[in-house]
Design goal:
By secondary structure, this protein is α/β, with parallel strands linked by helices. The chain contains 13 helices and five strands. It has one domain: Protein-Tyrosine Phosphatase, Chain A, CATH 3.90.190. It has a five-stranded mixed beta sheet. 36% of the residues are buried.
Length: 259
């Protein structure tokens, strides 16, 4: 994981999620696929580093109110495509509602996240964003960045689906998903994480609960995959039926991203 991590000053969990072997015996190209947390705290040095990556597309998976609260900073002259949507903007944020109503225990956070992953693949806003991402992935030239708030749940699921489409094994796509637990550098950033959670909840969680809230577990992604398989038979069925990724698009994506 360390060689995929791109250390930035104000953007967390920024990494290249290429470089994994595929079922066809080749490798997902590096320098084409990136994932991260939000960019509202990007420093001038971060923006220079981002500019050097040649990003053609940025997929912002956050809700509209998240984007308003923490607007993205982008390099001067950035002319790439930005994919986002306002679906559900009039709805209460379920994460904020949970934070304010729960006891903020580790068990409560884990239960919330299991339920979240069971429903996330079928949320209309996710289906719209994910399907537009895969359509663009088949057509765009240059690198693509996907991000949400922490770069772990919405981003983690989309990265895992991308890996599956490219023929990356479950073992390797799970390794990439779990790498968030190292990339977020909890020991150094825990005070800030607790502060952020306290601002959302109105009170502080324990350090144990904060770590769990901001980390990932294999069971979360496995829950999403099980829900997808129950509804569509397998991940390929979900890609084809829910996200409208047809055979031609799959072939173009693989041709662009496998070397």
């Amino acid at each position: 994981m360390i060689d995929r991590l791109i250390p930035l000053e104000g953007v967390l969990n920024f990494r290249d999620f290429g470089g994994y072997p595929t079922a066809c015996g080749r490798t997902v190209l590096r320098g084409k696929l990136y994932r991260s947390a939000h960019h509202s705290r990007a420093t001038a040095a971060d923006l220079e580093a981002l500019s050097a990556l040649g990003l053609a597309v940025v997929v912002d998976l956050r809700r509209a109110h998240e984007r308003r609260r923490e607007p993205s900073r982008r390099p001067a002259g950035f002319a790439g495509q930005v994919i986002e949507n306002d679906i559900g903007d009039d709805e209460d944020d379920p994460w904020i509602a949970f934070m304010r109503e729960s006891d903020l225990s580790a068990e409560a956070f884990r239960g919330y996240l299991i339920d979240y992953y069971r429903a996330a693949p079928f949320e209309p806003r996710h289906i719209d964003l994910y399907s537009r991402y895969f359509q663009t992935l088949a057509e765009a030239e240059g690198a693509v960045l996907i991000h949400c708030a922490a770069g772990k749940d919405r981003t983690g699921l989309l990265a895992a689906l991308t890996h599956h489409l490219l023929g990356v094994s479950r073992e390797h796509l799970l390794d990439d998903y779990l790498a968030t637990n190292h990339a977020l550098d909890f020991d150094r950033r825990l005070p800030r994480l607790i502060q952020d959670l306290a601002e959302q909840a109105g009170r502080e969680p324990t350090p144990e609960a904060a770590r769990l809230a901001m980390g990932v577990e294999a069971a979360y992604l496995q829950t999403a995959f099980a829900a997808i398989e129950d509804a569509h038979g397998d991940l390929d069925g979900y890609l084809a039926e829910a996200l409208r990724v047809d055979t031609a698009s799959r072939a173009r994506i693989r041709a662009r991203l496998i070397g």
